[in-house]
Prior knowledge:
Number of domains: 4
CATH topology of the largest domain: Penicillin-binding protein 2a (Domain 2)
Structural class: alpha+beta
Amino acid sequence: MPEPSAGAGVGAALVAALVATARGLVRLAVRLVHLVVDAFLEVTHPARSESTTARRAAERVPVGDSRRRLIAVLAAGAVLFAVIAVRLAGLQLVEPDQLEAYGMAQRMRVQNVAADRGTITDRNGVELAVSAPQRSVFVDPALIEDPSAEAAQLARVLGVDAGPIEAAMRADNRFGYIARHVDDDVAAEVEALALPGVAFLSEPKRFTPSGDIARSIVGSTDVDGNGISGIEAQYGDLLTGTPGKVVFEQTPDGNTIPVGEHEVIEAQRGHDVRLTLDRGLQFEVERILGDAVLANGARAGTVIVAKPDTGEILAMANMVNDRDSGTVVPSSNNEALTTVIEPGSVMKVVAAAGAIEDGHVTPDTRVTVPDAIQFGPDVIKEHDFHGTVSWSVAEILQRSSNTGTIRLAQMLGKERLYEYLKTFGFATPTGLGFPNEAIGYLPKPADWWDSSMGTIPIGQGVSVSALQMLGAYNVIANDG
């Protein structure tokens, strides 16, 4: 609903002050006139004046005193009228433009116009989130005739309790929402009621044409169209656009003046955002992952499909097991970025890559691999007993050897191993800027325990996100 501009409030305050001042001056002028008349009568008609002053129970004032009082009153009156004349001259000659502007501000009203939100699409332009106009029901309490009866009728059509509706109808304002973004059939029923003071606004509502596909990436908006998660929140400013406004002149009773002053500032539509996701591939990955989560009785699962050479993410699936319903559904939380885990053996590639990069070994270099290595009171063992053997670096990775990986890490030392872990992107933001992204945990060498040289190289005592781990393997896949 239109609301008064700031200028209107200032103008109203000024006019009210001027009116109050004028009334005060008029009362003072009338009082002075009475005093002048009384003094004049005392001088020219002493007998008549005597009857006038008798009600005051006072003795007659000597003629000389009366004349002096008359002169004083006339002088005060002259000063008063001079002040009034100067003030009127100021209003008429010095400040007419300012007062005219204040008067115009009182009559002008501003109606904000929401900008259409941009569309989110996949890499091929397929819509994942789009806005479309939807009607909302509002009420102007000043026009409501029977709040109880009208609230009951609206509640029946909307399927809600009548109490809040009636409260909105009795509010001391000119606008209140009753229902936001109602379906067309419901809007038609409300319209058929023809209730005074009840009307509609056309507002944009966010829709996801592809359903819940990529739900955790696309995110969601609130009822006002503000992004609250995912891409909707991350690129909220870009998607939102610039609101417009309509400024128009109204009569004191709120009617628009057809030939009055008006201004229209068009709303600027928000920008579209195109993702690297492929909707078709995303659908298949979510389906396959959902089946795997259900088959293994897992709490949730995450899969990321990306191009190693560019890092483009083609699919990012996050499925969660709803054990109450026995179904697996797309998660609203992008666990590939916001959840961290202890990676375990997949971390072993970093120690091997670092040892090769620094020239300590080659993939074919043979390394003595014991069955267990002791760090103070802690002993790190292989998952399968094999005694002491000689394996190449390639075999150490193929067999996922714990002790073999530790031997490679010892060649680097803890400072250099830490540097490689950071270089591979662990405990570092991915750069995507996704809301609530977790960076994981990697202690600095000064904070390592005696056994840390045995646990960190094999992915224990640290935490990483799925996307961080994918980034590390992309380094290997694209030859560094």
